[in-house]
Every structure is written in C-alpha cells, then in structure tokens.
Amino acid sequence: MLLYMYTDSLEELQWETASDLYVAAEKYQIMTLKDKCSSFLKSNLSLSNACKILLLSDLLQDKALKSIVQGFILKNDRSVINSSDWELLMKDNVNLAAETMLLRYKE
C-alpha cells in the first residue's frame, strides 16, 4: 500500500495482493486504490476465485462488484456450485449463497 501511495502505481499485481489491498483501501478510505483494486478483481474474476471475491464484495458492501460476481457465478453455476469454495461458502455464509442463487429466479 505504501508503494501505491508514493507511486500511484500497481505493478505486477496478483489477485490475493489485490484483495488484501482492497480491504486496506476500504479501511483507510483510499478510494482511488479501492477503485483500482476493484477493477483488477473484476477483470481477473475466475472460477477459482469467484466465491472469495463474492465474500469480499459482500463484506465491504461493494454492490457493483458483488453484482458482477453474482452474475459470473450464475453464468457458470454448474462449475462454481460443484467447487469446494462453494461448499465452504454454503457452510460459512449460507445467506450470501442463497441470495446469489435466488437471483436465478428473479431474472
């Protein structure tokens, strides 16, 4: 985060680093950093990280990111629902998982 604050640059960002920076940016209200991390997470959304990003977006109350992730999950529902990450989400945050699946019927 200090590197970003001094350089205004996020070089060679990995998704886990982006998610950590995203949380820190929210905590310290560094909105430009939060926006860059959110954009990175959106563009690097995959089957392997969708549940984690969904949980993160819900935790930080980022409705735009959450909506994108939920759409991705619904588009790839068979792959996501059969993953161990989805099982963990169902176990630890059943309301978020149910909210996401209910969107299927509201379309």
From TrEMBL:
<dbReference type="Pfam" id="PF00651">
    <property type="entry name" value="BTB"/>
</dbReference>
<feature type="domain" description="BTB">
    <location>
        <begin position="1"/>
        <end position="44"/>
    </location>
</feature>
<dbReference type="InterPro" id="IPR011333">
    <property type="entry name" value="SKP1/BTB/POZ_sf"/>
</dbReference>
<protein>
    <recommendedName>
        <fullName>BTB domain-containing protein</fullName>
    </recommendedName>
</protein>
<dbReference type="InterPro" id="IPR000210">
    <property type="entry name" value="BTB/POZ_dom"/>
</dbReference>
